[in-house]
Amino acid sequence: MANVIVVGTQWGDEGKGKIVDLLTSRAQVIVRFQGGNNAGHTLVVGGEKYILHLIPSGILNADDKTCLIGNGVVVDPEVLLKEIETLNQRGYPVPPGKLYLSENAHLIMPYHKAIDHGREARKGKKAIGTTGRGIGPCYEDKIARRGIKVIDLLDENLFAEKLRDVLEEKNFYLEKFLGVNPLPFEAIYDTYLSFGRQLAPYVTNVSVKLAEAMEAGKSILFEGAQGTQLDIDHGTYPFVTSSNTVAGGACCGAGIGPTKIDVVLGICKAYTTRVGGGPFPTELTDEVGDHLQRQGAEFGSTTGRKRRCGWLDIVVLREAVRLNGLTALAITKLDVLSGLKSLKICTAYQYEGQIFRSMPANINQVAQAQPIYEELEGWSEDISGVRAFEELPSAAQNYIRRIEELAGVPVWLISVGASREETIILHHPFAGH
């Protein structure tokens, strides 16, 4: 058995969904531990594209896999139920027992989404680029101890009491500060009780389920959302998400101790992208950036927004290695670099004569930092059919080896296409445990 955490090393959108789907063949349990439906994992299985927002990517594997949504996830019950229905319709049944939902996960309510949209509209050009899904306001209520949890839906009186208390405050804020219409109690109450009845068979104590799985000798895969630079504590604040996206979040967000983790695998795109606002030192606004965006089909899985593209940033990657305690890397979308005569890797930043090899805490310094590049030879060959490292063009091999040297951790997996099969496996994360 082995317990493996998969995390993003950049600003999200690194291709975690595909890697999780690939690794699930050797895991019996897959658990999502943070974030909400602001994340979107895109998978291609049998030529079909699937986008999952809440349910772990392992759901597309065999029936003997169990998927769990941990307490660290904030859940929009309507979105979750639609996702279950869509998978059922597409031939991937999601019955209770195959999927479990933590009784302690917090619920995204209609007022969270209304506040999210209202704040962004009020900020105008200073908006941070939130998805508007209510993620941040939901986490705010969780920390302020006024949140509503999944288990509350199964007690009608408790739910009514908590909803009345919080809705009075939310409606005052919505109407008097944000200038939008207040929300009615009865409609929310009735709708969410209906959601609760539908979700009740899925609700359980995820921490206990994980302990039972470990005692039974099962391998567990912990699936993160977003990326390290979107971590609420360690990312490019305030242009971040509202949860801890680093590996340590798996322990809090699923209910396990840190001594239970065997491997932390960091997913790193062969270049860098980010969606929404915030500093991006290696961003390219030229024809190379257009090439990466076009060849990589760089559109957000959740929002559909065009992703900003740039060269690989080792400052960002080294942050991820340190903050997550990475065991190894999986490099994704290496095939997108095919056709470029030369490649650049950012090894440090320069700001007002000072060299930074780690991320500056001052957000203005990050925004104004100039990347220091080293240049490598590119390649023109189509590598989507390659299945062994030695078969890659020598320039592509050199690129991977240089990433290993600069990051200080080995590369175990290399993705050369969107499907499961289009992957070079140098070492399997579940091997040897």
What does the model show?
There is one protein chain. The chain is an alpha/beta fold and 433 residues long. It has 3 domains: 3-103 and 203-263, Adenylosuccinate Synthetase, Chain A, domain 1 (3-Layer(aba) Sandwich), CATH 3.40.440.10; 106-199, Adenylosuccinate Synthetase, subunit A, domain 2 (Orthogonal Bundle); 268-425, Alpha-Beta Complex (Adenylosuccinate Synthetase, Chain A, domain 3). Helices cover 32% and strands 21% of the residues. It contains 12 helices and 20 strands. The chain has helices spanning 16-23, 77-89, 110-123, 135-143, 156-177, 185-199, 206-215, 248-254, 287-295, 314-324, 363-368, 394-407; strands at 3-8, 29-32, 41-45, 48-52, 66-69, 74-75, 99-102, 106-107, 203-204, 220-223, 263-269, 272-274, 308-310, 312-313, 328-332, 340-351, 354-356, 370-379, 411-415, 423-425. The strands form 5 sheets. The protein has a 10-stranded mixed sheet, with helices on both faces. Strand 3 and strand 4 form a beta hairpin. Helix 3 (110-123) packs across helix 4 and helix 3 runs parallel beside helix 5 (156-177). The longest helix is centred in the middle third of the chain and has 22 residues, at 156-177. It is globular. It starts with a strand and ends in an 8-residue tail after the last strand.
